[in-house]
Amino acid sequence: MNVQPLRPDLAARRRLAAKLEPFDSYWQAPEDIDSGYDSFAAYYRANYLPHLPENRAARILVVSCGPGYLLNVLARAGYQNVVGIDSDPAKVEHGRRRGLPCEAAEAFPFLESKHGEFDVIIPEQELNHLTHDETIEFLRLCHDALRPGGRIIVYAMNGANPFVGAENLAHNIDHFYIVTEYSLTQLLELGGFRDVRPFPLALYVFWKNPLNYVGLAVTSVLEFLMRIVFRLYGKKVRVLSKKVAAVAVRS
Question: Per-residue confidence at 12, pLDDT binned at 50, 70, 90?
Answer without folding.
Answer: very low
